[in-house]
Amino acid sequence: MCKSIRDVLIAVVLGAGVLAAWPAQAADIENALKQAESVRTRDPQAFANALDGLDRFEPEATPKQKLQIRFLKTYQKVLTGDYRTAITDAIDIHKRTDDPTLKFRAALLAANTAAITREFSLGLRYLEAALAMQDQVPEADERHLGSLVAAVLYTEYGQHSLTLHHAKHLLAIQTTPRTRCVAREKKIEAEWKLGSGANSEQDINFAISDCVAQKEPIATGLLRGYLARLWAAEGKNNEAIGLLEAHLSEVEATGFPRLIGEIHSLLAEYRQATGDLAGAELDARTVLELGERDAFSQPLVTAYKVLFETALKRGDLRVALREYRNYAEADKARLDEIKAREFAFQLSRHELQQKNQAIELLQKQNEVLTLQQEVSEAATRNNQLLLVLLAMVMAAIAYWAYKVKRVQVKFRRQAQVDGLTGISNRRHFRQTGEALLQRCASAGRDASMVLLDLDHFKRINDSHGHAVGDWVLQQVAVALQAACREGDICARLGGEEFALLSCGSDVDAARRIAQRCREHLAAIDTSVIGQPVTASFGCTTSGRSGYAFEAMFAHADVAMYQAKASGRDRVRAYGEDGVGPATVLELVRG
C-alpha cells in the first residue's frame, strides 16, 4: 500500500480526516481492497471507513473487483447482525464468481452466517462446498481459513472434539498471526466446553496477549470472557467484573451482537453474585435488547435467570413469576436448539455418506458401460457376465435405498420421541396435540388435558442416583401409557413432568384418567427406593379453557401447581376447587 493511502487511513481512524478527501491520483482500488481486508476484523470503524472509500472507486472497478467489494460489504452485514441479507449475498457471490479464492471465501461466509441463523443444513452444505475446493485455492493462508471456519462451525454444532482437532492442527502449522489468534481462542473454548481442564490462567493470558498484538477485538473479547469465567469459578467475582468492565467499551465497539450479549450476561451473573442487583438487572436488560438477533443463546437464558432471581430477592413475586416463565421458555428453546444442531450435523454426515455412496455407484455404472462395449463383440458367456454385473449394481442400489430409508425413519423417530422413556417429547406432543384439538373442535367433541409432576423426585435422584431416577421415569411412562385410552396422546415434557391429551372427555373423564394414573403409579414396585411414587395432577377441558393448546396447557399447569401447593399426590381441575386465573400469584406467594 502506498504511503499516502496509509497516512489518510490513519487520519480517518484518529478522526483527523475523511476518505472523501483522498486525492484522485491515490485512488488505487487494489490497495484500497487490501487495506479494507487488513482491518476487516481488527478495527470495525476503520473497516467501515474503508468501505466508504471503496464506494468511490466502485464505478471504475472491474467485475471481479466489484464482487470483492460486495464480499467485504457482505462481511460487514454479518458484523452488524444483518444475517439474512448476508447469507443471500454470500451465496450469490459464490455462484457468480469464477475466482477460486473469492468463491471459496464466499462459501465459508455463507456457511458461518447460516450457523448463526440456525440454518444448519445450509451451513454444513456450504462448508462442505468450501472444503471440497480448498486445494484449488492458491494461497496457503486462504486455504487455512477453511480449517478455521470448520473449527468455528463445529463449535456451533456442539462438536467440540472436532473443533479442538482443527484448532490444534492450525496451531501446529505455519499460518498467519490472525489465524493463529482465532485458533487459540477456539482451542480454549473447546477445552472449556469439553471440561478437559486443560485451560489455565497462563494459557488464556497468553492467548489474549497474542490476539491483542494482532488487533483482533472479537477473539480478544471472547478470551477475556473465559478468563472471567475461570476467575468466577475460583470465587473471584469482583476481579471478573473488573476485567470485563475495563474492556467493555472495546467489546461494544466491535458491534458484534453475540460477543456483546455474552459479556453483558457474564457481568449480570457476577454482579448478582456480589449483591449488585441494579447493575445485574441493567446488564441483563442489555442482553434482552440484543435477544431478537440471537433468540436461542445461552446469554439470553442467563439474562432471564438473573432477572427472575433479582425479582425474587426484591420480593416482587409477580415480576419473578413472569421472568421465570421467560427463563424456562428460553432454556427449553436453547435445549431444543442444541438437539436440532446435533440432528442437522448427523443428517449432514449421513447425506455426505450417501453422496459418496452415490459416487461409488456411478463409478460402478461406468465400469459396467465399459464392460458393455467390450462384451458387444464377445460370446454369450460375456453377455451373461454383463447381466450378473447389472444385477449386482441394482442390488447395491436397492440395498442402499433400504438403508437410507431406515436411517431417515430412525432420525424422524429421534426427533419425535423422548430418548429415555420412549413416549412423545415436548415438541411432538405440541404438534400432535394441536392437530387433535382441531379435530375435536371440528367434531364438536370435548377435549381434556392432564399434566402431572412427580412429587419429591429430586430426593430420589439425590438418595439413589440418576440411574434409579431414570428407571422411575421409565416406569412412570409405562404407567401413563396404561392409563391412556385409544387415541390419547401422552408425552414427557422434560425432567419429571408428563402430560396427556384426550379427545371426547369432559372434566369427570379427565379426573378419572388422572385417578387411573395415580393407581398405576401406586402399583409400581418401589422396594428399591423405599418410598411410593406419587404425582400432583392438574387437568382442564376445552369447555373451560377453549381448544387453544397454549390456553389448555397453561390452565392445566395452574391446576397442577395448585395440587402441589395443597399437599401433593392429588388431582385438581381448573375452574374447580378454587383453581382459577388468580391462583398463579397465590402459588408464588406460598
Automatic annotation (TrEMBL):
Co-factor(s): Mg(2+)
Q: Which reaction does it catalyse?
A: 2 GTP = 3',3'-c-di-GMP + 2 diphosphate
Where exactly are the transmembrane stretches of this chain?
385-402
Pfam families from the UniProt entry? GGDEF
Where do the coiled-coil regions begin and end?
321-372
Return the CDD domains for the record: GGDEF
- Write down what this protein is called: diguanylate cyclase
Please report the organism this UniProt entry assigns to the protein: Aerolutibacter ruishenii
